[in-house]
Amino acid sequence: xxxxxxxxxxxxxxxxxxxxxxxxxxxxxxxxxxxxxxxxxxxxxxxxxxxxxxxxxxxxxxxxxxxxxxxxxxxxxxxxxxxxxxxxxxxxxxxxxxxxxxxxxxxxxxxxxxxxxxxxxxxxxxxxxxxxxxxxxxxxxxxxxxxxxxxxxxxxxxxxxxxxxxxxxxxxxxxxxxxxxxxxxxxxxxxxxxxxxxxxxxxxxxxxxxxxxxxxxxxxxxxxxxxxxxxxxxxxxxxxxxxxxxxxxx
Length: 250
What we know:
The protein is mostly beta strands. It has strands at residues 18-20, 27-30, 39-43, 57-60, 64-71, 76-85, 97-99, 105-108, 116-120, 128-131, 135-142, 148-157, 162-164, 168-169, 183-185, 187-195, 201-205, 215-216, 219-220, 224-234, 239-248. β11 and β12 (148-157) form a beta hairpin. It starts with 17 loop residues before the first strand and ends with a strand.
């Protein structure tokens, strides 16, 4: 009786070059061809292997060249895998920053022609972007070896509260000057009172978006000079009180 042992298939597709990222690694090289009649022998000119590494898989934690021999009584086939430490980018967007009133800030991840970049949100693929809105910005930088690093920066809205009281308006149903209202930004509360030249209160509101339409007690107020008194509570916790005159044109 004769026994025929088939030639083991070539293990090269299974044992392939591998890149690892970082300093702590544990890779498993797989030679495949797991048959009861195949025998595996692993060797390396760069790394001392444990005697008796005869399994179809080999766990490695160092860069180097690894070779495996698969054989039976009829054939012997060698395959080689190179385990390489990949280049890991280093990205630092710096400390969190403050942004105010859509003034653009340059966020720079450091240019390298061999790296690719991906920012979120936005999806930009450049090494730097201009950011105007408060919030979190993250960038992923990837090397040609497929290794990547990420960093995130927070842009914090730190605008000081500002307000502006107009000096005139025309309540004639013709926007934009037909409603008297101050421009305010960065305030959480407001009280506005309008007085005529004789000290009579014509209008009052606590609405941050409120404004005077030029009517008092259901009738159009006469043309002339008026006084706006305003009290504001800023997001910074400070209170502002102001009084300014303005003119109503008919």
